[in-house]
Design goal:
It is built from three helices and five strands, in the order αβββαβαβ. By secondary structure, it is of the alpha+beta class. It has a single domain, classed as HIT family, subunit A, CATH 3.30.428.10. The protein has a five-stranded antiparallel β-sheet with strand order 1-2-3-5-4, with helices on one face. A hairpin with a 7-residue loop joins β2 and β3. The longest helix is centred in the middle third of the chain and has 17 residues. The chain binds 2'-deoxyguanosine-5'-monophosphate. The site of 2'-deoxyguanosine-5'-monophosphate has 13 residues, from β2.
Length: 114
């Protein structure tokens, strides 16, 4: 989608600090980090949010989660862990309407969310 920020990052129109890329998925640093570690994992194809995920996307979302885990480990989160978050629509606090997994770590995080 031409007016989607993350589609434009995936296609290289908008620059980002990329951590990983293949034909289906992209991981990059969040522009507004909420911890020493904060990156996003997105599908390159435009899926607006997790409510729109299809059963045919099962392998894709599995690969995204596995890549989120691997990158979190690379960034030193294996021992103490991290937060893996998918915000969805207005009540979930989603601000960019392109499915993304947040990985936030490097410090203790509070729970429950406000
Ligand atoms: P959410 O609220 O779950 O939709 O999170 C969207 C995240 O996307 C938020 O943490 C900030 C990040 N973000 C928004 N615009 C950009 C951008 O242009 N570049 C990068 N790297 N991150 C962005």
């Amino acid at each position: 989608m031409s007016n989607c920020i993350f589609c434009n990052i995936a296609s290289g129109i908008i620059p980002a600090q990329k951590l990983y890329e293949d034909e289906e998925i992209l991981a990059f640093q969040d522009v507004s980090p909420q911890g020493p570690v904060h990156f996003l994992v997105i599908p390159k194809k435009h899926i607006p949010n997790i409510m729109e995920l299809e059963v045919t996307d099962t392998l894709l979302i599995g690969r995204m989660l596995h890549k989120a885990q691997a990158l979190a480990q690379e960034q030193g989160c294996a021992e103490k862990g991290a937060r893996f978050v998918i915000n969805c629509k207005s009540h979930g606090g989603q601000t960019v309407d392109h499915l993304h997994i947040h990985v936030i770590g490097g410090r203790p995080l509070g729970w429950p969310p406000g």
